[in-house]
Amino acid sequence: MGELTWGTPLFFDLWMAGMAGGAYFAAFLIHLFGADEEKRLLKLATYIGVPLVLLGVLAIIIDLGEPLRAFNIYVGLRPWSWQVVSGGGAASLRAWPPSVTFHLTSPMSLGGWILVIFSVAGVALIALWLAESAESPEQRGGFLGWVADILRPLVPATKALTWIGFVFAILLMAYTGVVLSASSQTLWQATFLVPPLFVASATSTGLAALMIALQLTGARERAAVMAQLRKALTVLVIVQLVVLVGFLLWLSVAGVVGPLISGTLGLFFWVGVVLLGLLIPLGLEFSALRGRAVLASPALVLLGGLVLRAVVVIGGQM
Amino acid sequence: MAKAMLIDTYKCMACRGCQVACKAWNDLPAETTVNRGTYENPPALSEKTWTRVEFREVEAGGEVAWLFRKHQCMHCTQASCVSVCPTGAAMHHGEFVLIDQAQCIGCGYCVQACPFDAVHLGEPKGTARKCTFCLDRVTDGYEPACAKACPPGAIQFGDRGELIATGKGRVGELRANGHPNARLYGETELGGLHQLYVLTDKAAAFGLPEAPRVATRNVLGQWLSGFVTAGVLAALPFWLVIKRRQEMASSRGGE
């Protein structure tokens, strides 16, 4: 095995982007089904989601071979090639005018746009929520009050924006799996279950991140909401376990499960993903410890999600 | 008329002249390697080795056959690298597949997508690089450097249709002379490759996929499988848990 083409930054990105999408997805549904009328969780999910996505994007940009050209994913603007006519006439003709780059068959092209739209929607939501809650400029004065005054007429758009965020949260979660499965690497393309596995993991890690954030911000009526979230997390862990079993069965039928479940990687898989990430959180839920160790399960689920991304990303390239 | 190369594995004597010619013409540096107990060298294609001869020992009828295959970009008609490239740097130029070095961001997606492991990023990473079919020679009417250098004439450059006819003739000769598994590779694979092989044995014996497939062939289904999972998750944990809570709340309110 040579150098990994996709290494640590990529699986951190898949983990963080998935977590951001999953947190938003979970919070939106909890709000939609009436258990979070003040949108406290939705706001929390947006506040943690936007930085997570941006951190993830930063990680992959740094990991690119030519980081300074990252914007090529979005626009075909190439000032350095205006006088370079190499690789045939067609290449030089495309240098001008600049064009929007969008490739329907490339999950990474779509992913790039999904990340941007999700982040922009998140930032817009945060701005509108702040404007909504800000006091009038007479009372508060200064620049921020003035900005809030400008934004206030846009507040009715909040609901539409939360729906856009929801759609792109789903796209974001799915992207983290599809980007791997649209390849020629055996482990990633032998099954249709990489996207489902990553969506399930994104949702559980997202909900876990929400629970940790809620606990740390000391929300009112925390106990009642936390109990609901813990139940939801337990169901999510069970679903993820089912998807994981299906994933392993599919891969073993295809005869390619080896690198994932044996050797050093297998150790990480069994201990990190299965034991720490799924079985122990599940066991804690049904044990006497659950009242005392509030953050143990969410923290383990987060860790399990990271190890899952790592072993799948590395295993595919072995 | 589409151009192509026909590589006759029966004629190849593994002199690796093609490797040297490729390095010389494309100004690619040498790689530091160690003796691995084989004449095959370097151990793999890389961003600075765009072609190399692979050596394989295969047992057939109690005898060891030593199989040689020149490995490089196949210039597929249905090219996975072109499908997955987020910037459009990997592109078709006529029948050839090129990576626009001014457009490539070095994301490595084409490396993961190529069914033939023909594209590579370096260490430190830069842009993705691979065989260009010596476009700078071919557009001026010359044959690619590897074909020019090949002493036994195992690499032929020419019109693709004519090469397919030649290749089929060669396969017929080989089958009649002790190579029952001989086949022409690349005529229909991935919509037609522009590197054709006359193989003396099955594709697998030469490390080639019997039925190569485009990386993005299932991409729609893969997106859908993600969406369906999101739907199931929306229903199962959230709707279930929250609904029960609401019912409990309403029944408590009714007391």
For the structure shown, list the relevant keywords.
heterodimer; A: 318 residues; mainly alpha; 13 helices; B: 255 residues; alpha+beta; Alpha-Beta Plaits; two-stranded antiparallel sheet; 8 strands; 18% strand; elongated
Describe this structure as you would to a colleague.
With 318 residues, chain A is an all-alpha fold. Chain A has a single domain (8-316), classed as Formate dehydrogenase/DMSO reductase domain (Formate dehydrogenase/DMSO reductase fold, Up-down Bundle), CATH 1.20.1630. Chain A has helices at 8-32, 40-63, 89-93, 107-133, 137-140, 142-151, 158-181, 186-189, 194-217, 222-253, 258-261, 263-285, 296-316. The N and C termini of chain A lie close together (6 Å). Chain B has 2 domains: 3-75 and 134-206, Alpha-Beta Plaits; 80-130 and 213-253, Alpha-Beta Plaits (2-Layer Sandwich). The relative contact order of chain B is 0.18. The radius of gyration of chain B is 25 Å and the shape is elongated. Chain B has 7 helices and 8 strands; from the N terminus they run βαββαββαααβαββα. Helix content of chain B is 32%, strand content 18%. With 255 residues, chain B is of the alpha+beta class. The longest helix of chain B is centred in the last third of the chain and has 36 residues, at 219-254.
What is the chain-wise order of helices and strands of chain A? HHHHHHHHHHHHH
CATH topology-level name of the largest domain in chain B: Alpha-Beta Plaits
User: What is the straight-line distance between the termini of chain B?
Assistant: 85 Å
What is the 3D shape of chain B? elongated
Report the average pLDDT across residues of chain B: 91
Helix content of chain B: 25-40%
* Uncertain residue ranges of chain A: 80-94
Q: Tell me the β content of chain A.
A: under 5%
Number of helices in the DSSP assignment of chain B: 7
Query: What is the annotated CATH architecture of chain A?
Result: Up-down Bundle
CATH class of the largest domain in chain B: Alpha Beta
The greatest interface here is:
A-B, 76 and 66 residues
Q: Which geometry of chain A do the CA atoms define?
A: globular
How many domains make up the 3D coordinates of chain A? Answer: 1
For the biggest sheet of chain A, the summary is: none
Which class of secondary structure composition applies to the elements of chain A?
mainly alpha
CATH topology-level name of chain A: Formate dehydrogenase/DMSO reductase fold
Oligomer category: heterodimer
Could you tell me the radius of gyration of chain A in angstroms? 22 Å
Give helix % range of chain A: over 70%
